[in-house]
Write a structure and sequence with these properties.
Layout (H helix, E strand, L loop, with lengths): L1 H26 L5 H12 L12 H21 L3 H4 L3 H27 L3 H10 L6 H9 L3 E2 L3 H11 L1 H16 L5 H32 L7 H19 L4 H14 L5 H26 L2 H4 L3 H23 L7 H9 L5 H6 L1 H6 L4 H20 L2 H8 L2 E2 L19 E7 L21 E7 L2 E4 L11 E7 L3 H8 L1 E4 L4
Antiparallel strand pairs: 1-2, 3-6, 3-7, 4-5, 4-6
Helix pairs in contact: 1-2, 1-13, 2-13, 3-11, 3-12, 3-13, 5-6, 5-8, 5-9, 5-15, 6-9, 10-11, 10-12, 11-12, 11-13, 15-16, 15-19, 16-20
């Protein structure tokens, strides 16, 4: 036992480190990190140089669910409500109607082409219906590109909110296959219950988390992120016990928490960001270990057909129907469609039929795995090129790494904010003491050409400068009026 533990402590961190370094090298060529992590797992598997035999769908599913909980909570926690509020209804439509249309079309196509039963086809469609925007933005960042207007928050919000819908459909179709006598009405009622419970528990736990962070006084500051981690896991566990959507609950809890301020927020967000990356790497490694590459050759042709139908027919149909009444150009809707990469969620969902003993489940798993690989290869490596051709690309927003930080603690009634000196604005070309800074506001630094200048009364502001100021809540609007656009440091 001692030797096996030593071996685990040698192999696991070695795989994690190798994945981190490999993703760094691959990002220079625009290869999504998702693909690198999966490849590392496959290379470490029984049919690769690593020779590690792993054939435990239950353990893989358990690790995947655990990792998705952490990833979704971190995603919600780092989401700016001000960014997703304008696209909330569009994202919700994509996460519901878009998923339904995509799943239905893929299900119909698969059953007609491959001779699958209608329920088997719909199960395959449900499994591959969710998207993963993490790979999209990793590639865009590596290529020094972004998406203009509100496309980025829309794609990001959709990817975080459509996983619960895909889970509900997958579980529902499995139940129908196991219990043919179950009616569609019962399935719809069960779906409504899961959504309602997930939303209520997610909102309620977010309020409880904020209260705990505000009122519970711990002796060690490092325990606050740990407490938040436990509460996030408790949110999923409680919701799942009540037969609700745990994924929806944790994602919603993160979004609700992100809307306001609470003590130690910066440390909590950073902690969960690191935990989410660790969970993502571990999840992809395990999923890579679970697949046997020799079995993929037999599904290469049908996998390519399903993937191409998904990318060029089902996904566009779902997007354009979901955004039918949205004021978006054809190019923008096409970009949203192309940005719908498949990720870890479909592979994890593909383990559900395996554990349920559904006929043909191994074939479904291999088809899903091949579809995800091809989707990442085709869409992930061409995302920046497609954005440029459609004319929806934009330089990524530059975020300032300030040499000073402000942690919200009890008794603190001020916040550290960023203010952009607009081009042609009244503040440009004037000294700080001349612009009428409201009483109670303290301008500390001026960022110009990625260099920081200590702010003095005689410091002259220039167009494009970013001013860092310590401001009370009641004075924010007044300071914004005399300088320009404002962004909060706490919401990075």
């Amino acid at each position: 036992m001692h030797l096996s533990v030593d071996l685990i402590l040698l192999v696991v961190p070695a795989l994690l480190l190798a994945s981190v370094f490999a993703s760094k090298a691959a990002s220079r060529f625009g290869v999504p990190a998702l693909l690198v992590f999966l490849a590392m797992g496959m290379l470490a598997g029984s049919e690769g140089p690593g020779g590690i035999y792993f054939d435990n769908p239950f353990l893989a599913q358990s690790i995947g669910v655990f990792a998705l909980v952490l990833i979704l909570f971190s995603g919600g926690l780092s989401t700016e409500w001000s960014a997703i509020k304008p696209v909330f209804l569009r994202g919700l439509s994509l996460a519901t109607l878009g998923v339904l249309v995509t799943a239905g079309l893929v299900g119909w196509f698969s059953s007609r082409l491959f001779g699958l039963s209608p329920l088997q086809g719909l199960l395959l469609g449900a499994i591959v219906s969710s998207t993963d925007a993490a790979a999209v933005f990793a590639v865009l960042k590596a290529r020094g590109a972004g998406l203009k207007r509100r496309l980025e928050p829309l794609v990001e919000f959709e990817s975080g909110s459509n996983d619960p819908m895909a889970v509900l459909l997958t579980v529902g179709f499995i139940e129908l296959m196991q219990n043919p006598g179950k009616s569609a009405v019962e399935l719809c009622l069960g779906f409504a219950w899961q959504v309602a419970v997930g939303a209520l528990v997610g909102w309620g736990m977010a309020r409880a988390m904020k209260a705990a962070m505000t009122r519970v006084k711990l002796e060690y500051e490092g325990l606050y992120p740990v407490m938040m981690l436990c509460l996030a896991l408790l949110t999923y566990g409680l919701t799942a016990t009540l037969r609700g959507s745990g994924f929806l609950a944790v994602y919603l809890a993160g979004i609700v928490l992100a809307r306001g301020e609470f003590p130690h927020k910066r440390n909590v967000v950073r902690f969960h960001d690191g935990v989410a990356w660790l969970a993502q790497i571990a999840m992809f490694l395990v999923l890579g270990l679970l697949v046997f590459p020799s079995q993929l050759a037999g599904v290469a042709v049908p996998g390519m057909i399903v993937c191409f139908f998904l990318i060029f027919v089902a996904r566009p149909a779902g997007v354009f129907l979901s955004l039918l009444f949205a004021r978006m150009s054809f190019a923008e809707k096409t970009m949203v469609s192309w940005a719908g990469l498949r990720g870890a969620a479909p592979i994890i969902l593909a383990t559900f039929p395996l554990l349920a003993g559904i006929p043909g489940s191994q074939l479904l798993f291999n088809l899903v795995f091949f579809t995800v690989l091809l989707s990442v290869l085709l869409q992930g490596t061409s995302i920046s090129f497609v954005a440029r051709r459609l004319g929806v690309d934009a330089p990524p927003e530059k975020k300032i790494r300030s040499p000073i930080e402000l942690e919200q603690t009890e008794g603190m009634d001020a916040d550290l904010v960023e203010l952009l000196v607009p081009y042609g604005g009244a503040a440009a070309g004037r000294a700080i003491h001349e612009i009428g800074v409201p009483t109670g506001c303290l301008i500390t630094l001026v960022c110009r050409d990625e260099k920081f200048i200590v702010a003095l009364g005689k410091t002259v502001l220039e167009e494009g400068d970013v001013v860092l100021a310590l401001v009370r809540e009641e004075d924010k609007a007044a300071l914004q009026a005399v300088i320009g656009k404002m962004g909060t440091r706490q919401k990075e």
